[in-house]
Oxidoreductase
Amino acid sequence: MRSSLAAPGRGLLAGLVAGLLLTTIQALARLWLGVPPPAELLGDRIAPLLSIDQFFGLFGVFGGYNGLKQAGILGGTAGQLAVGFVIAIAVAVVSRRPLRLLVILTALFLAAALAVLWPNLSTNYGGWTPGPARAITIATMVVGFALFGAAVAVVLRVLTARPAAPTSPGPVSPGRRAVLGGVGAGVVGVGLAAATGGIGAALVRESTFSYDGLRVGGPGITPITANEAFYTVTKNVIDPRITPSRWNFGIDGAVATPTTWNLGDLRAMPQLTQETTLSCISNGVGDGLESNAMWTGIPLADLIAAAGPSDATVEVLLTAVDGYTDTFPIDKALDPTTLLAFGMNGVDLPRRHGFPARLVVPGMYGEKCLKWITRVELVTEERKGFYETQGWGPNFEIPTRSRIASLTSGAQVPRTSTTVLTGTAHGGNRGVARVEISVDGARTWTDARITYPGTRLSWALWSHDWRPNTAGVTQLVVRATDQDGGRQIIDERGVVPQGATGLHKVDVTVI
Ligand SMILES: Nc1nc2c(c(=O)[nH]1)N[C@H]1C(S)=C(S)[C@@H](COP(=O)(O)O)O[C@H]1N2
Ligand SMILES: [Mo]
C-alpha cells in the first residue's frame, strides 16, 4: 500500500505542524513565564562577541538596533523551523527505524541548543533569579523539543497509510485515510499558525520597538525629566516584566556572607533621594540620550558592607534578569552616591526603567546603571560585561559636555527680535560651574545664564538671549566648565569606544 503523499511531503507537513507547535509553546512560555526562546537567547549569546565595528555594521544593514533585534528574532525563529523541517523530512524519508532516528535527531537538536546557549540560560524576563531561571529555561526547552518530536511522530503516523489486514477490510481505504490525515494535519497546522500569530501579536505589543532609543530635546527641556519622557536604551526585544515575589537582590562572590534580600526587606531599609543625570555612552555630541531624575534608594555600599566584602575585591560584576551584565571598580560601588534605586521622581521605577530595582552610578555612563538588577558579585580579578566584551571602554567616566537643545542646524532665526537659546550642560559627577556660548563660530564667547544649577551629580540648564542684528549664516557653539575646573574637551571624538567629545555646533541662518 502507498500513501498518496510522498515521503518528503509527509516530512514537510509533519515538520510544519511540529515546528509551529514548538514555536507556540515557546511564545506562550515567553508571554506567561518570561522564558526566552532559543532565538532570543542566541542574539544575547552573539551580541557581546561582535566587535563594535561589526555591531554597528549590522545596524547599518538592518536599520539600527531595533532593526537588528527584529532581524535576529525572526531569523532565529525561521532557523529553528528550518532545522525542524530537516529533521522531519529525514525521518519521513528513512524507512528503517524512523522513530529511533527521530529521538536521536531531536535529542541532538536539544543538546546543541543547550550547549550553545549555556551561558545565557539563567536569563528570565519574568524576574526569576539565576538559579530557578536556568531550571525553567531548560525545562521549557526539553518539553518543547520533546513535544516537537512527538508531534512529528504522530503526524507521520497519521499520514502513512499502513497495509490493512486482508481479513478485515476497513470502511476507509488506506489511500483515503492518508488524504484525510493530510487534511487533518493541515487543519491543525492552520490552527497552530493562527495561535502562533495571535500570541506573536501580543508579544509585539509588549516589545521595546516603540520606545527604545527615546531621546529628549527641543526648547522645552525641564530640569527634571518626566518618567514618560526619560531617554530609554535597552538591549531587549521585550523588556522584563518582573513579578516581585519571584525576584530578589543578592550580593555574592568575594564576601564573608552571601546575602539576598527580597523587595520588602529592601523597602524597609532607610531610603534617600538623590538627583542624578544618566547619559548613554552612545550619546553623540548634542544628542538627547541623556535625562535627569530624582532617584530613591539605598546606597549600594550599605548592602555590600552587610555581606562583608573581601579586601581582595577589585570589581563588582553585575547581572540583571535579562542577562545583561556589566562591571565597575569596587571603589565606585562603595561610593555613597552609587544607589540601588526603587523610586524615580516619586513613584516606583517604571517597568522600562528597571522595576523593581536598578543601579544609579553617578559620573559613569548609563551602561553601568543596570536595570532589573538581581546580582552583584564581588570579583578579585577584572571581568567584562555585555558591552565591555564588544570592546567599549575602558574609561566609562562621563566627560564634561554641553548642548544647544532649543535649535537644530538649518534653523532660521529672525534678525530683529530676540531668540532665546537654551540647553543643558553636564559635568558627570563634578557639577557644572560655567556655560559659555558663542554666536560667531567660536570666535568670541559670552557667559550663558545658568537657569537651573542642578547638583554635582546632575546637569544644569542654561539660557542666552540672542539678538543677531546682522543677517547671514552663522554658527552657534556652547562649552561648559565643571566645578572641579575641568573644561569641556574640544577634540572631536566619536562615541566608539568610550563616548563622544567635542563642542556642540549648530549652524543657523539669520533672516
Ligand atoms: N538590564 C539592563 N540594564 C541596562 C540596559 C539593558 O539593556 N539591560 N541598558 C543600559 C544602557 S546601554 C543604558 S544607556 C541605560 C539606559 O537607562 P534608561 O533606559 O533608564 O534611560 O540602561 C542600562 N541598563
Ligand atoms: Mo547606553
User: Anything to note?
Assistant: The domain at 401-510 is CATH 2.60.40.650 (Immunoglobulin-like). Residues 174-206 form the longest helix (33 residues). Residues 230-236, 278, 280, 320, 322, 324, 353, 366-367, 369-372 surround MTE (ligand 1) (CB under 6 Å).
